[in-house]
Design goal:
Blueprint (H helix, E strand, L loop, with lengths): L1 H16 L5 H5 L28 H4 L9 E3 L12 H13 L5 E6 L6 H21 L7 E7 L10 H7 L1 E6 L4
Parallel strand pairs: 2-3
Antiparallel strand pairs: 1-4, 2-4
Helix pairs in contact: 4-5
Family: Belongs to the Pal lipoprotein family.
Membrane topology: Lipid-anchor
InterPro entries: Bact_OuterMem_StrucFunc, OMP_bac, OmpA-like, OMPA-like_CS, OmpA-like_sf, Pal, Pal_lipo_C
């Protein structure tokens, strides 16, 4: 008798645990994976927040907040006037949304020694962090770190590639 009860109980348990998505779940934004050979999975968004927990305003390409890089001149760590509105917009977002944290990554091009580039990358990250702080962002919301030449945006070895690599990237929790 035990030999019949155990397999029956297991079959019942497995059947109870399985489910199929219904249209109500799909409309609510539940992830649904197609089983017809397609390998796509629907992106889940609830309440204007993406899968990383970021509000849509931070990822909408039409929003200034979707832009996260501040570019610097050669051998400089001064935030250019053309990027002050961008940093100000991020500062406003952070002061209005105290639960979010930001990591500022300072980057350089490949020219210069490793030590020099790490120091310059830190100065670039700190310049953005200081500007955010002066605009009212709490110190515990911002961290700055140098990546030096280790994370190039452009792998090229010319002026335009180097210009893309001289930057500070502003990343929110969930992106780092």
């Amino acid at each position: 008798m035990k030999q019949l009860v155990i397999p029956a109980a297991l079959a019942l348990l497995i059947a109870a645990c399985s489910s199929t998505p219904d249209s109500k779940d799909a409309a609510a934004g539940a992830p649904v994976e197609t089983r017809d050979g397609a390998s796509s999975v629907a992106t889940v968004t609830t309440g204007g927040v993406d899968g990383r927990g970021l509000p849509a305003v931070l990822t909408d390409p039409k929003s200034i907040l979707s832009k996260r890089s501040v570019y610097f001149d050669y051998d400089s760590y001064e935030v250019k006037a053309e990027y002050k509105d961008l940093v100000t917009a991020h500062a406003k977002f952070l002061t209005e949304n105290r639960k979010y944290k930001m990591l500022v990554q300072g980057n350089t091009d490949e020219r210069g020694s490793r030590e020099y580039n790490l120091a310059l990358g830190q100065k670039r990250a700190d310049a953005i962090r200081k500007m955010l702080s002066l605009l009212g962002v709490r110190e515990d919301q911002i961290e700055s770190v140098s990546l030096g030449e280790e994370k190039p945006k452009n792998e090229g070895h010319n002026d335009s590639a180097w210009a893309e690599n001289r930057r500070g990237d502003m990343l929110y929790s969930g992106e780092f």
